[in-house]
Write the structure tokens for this entry.
Amino acid sequence: MKSTTQFKLNPVNDLALKHAGEMSVKDICAQYGISEKQIRAAARYRGISLAFDKTVATKKLWTDQEIRQLHVLSITHTSAAIAQRLGRTEHSVKGKAYLLGIHFMKVGENNPLAKHSNHDIELCRQLNEEGLRPFQIAEKMEIEISHLCRVLKFEARYREIGVMA
């Protein structure tokens, strides 16, 4: 419930608020003998910030080389690994990647769930073009026939590795 009492101007509060940002609220209250509630209300009424000892983060601009590295590393590395390598925060890396349209989705043999190398997949497609039947290729390459059919129809492993958007 909002207070219905009118805020009273107090010269002690005015003196105390001159130290806003230079001293902590507790130190101001101790020095002037007023309560935290009172000093906070006075600051709010006057629109004065009581923030003290807050480090202001400055944004580090992205260089062209860092952006190129982000493009290249996003294919094989996680955002956390890239952040560590570039000396930035993970949020910074993810934000820049989002702005550039870079995705950290791993494709092909870079995907941790990939069972076959890009070379094997390409070999399967070449054998299919030469006329071998899918079940023969699956048996020869020791790949499940269902997965091989999806690969040959480009329903699986269809993205080219190393192509930047």
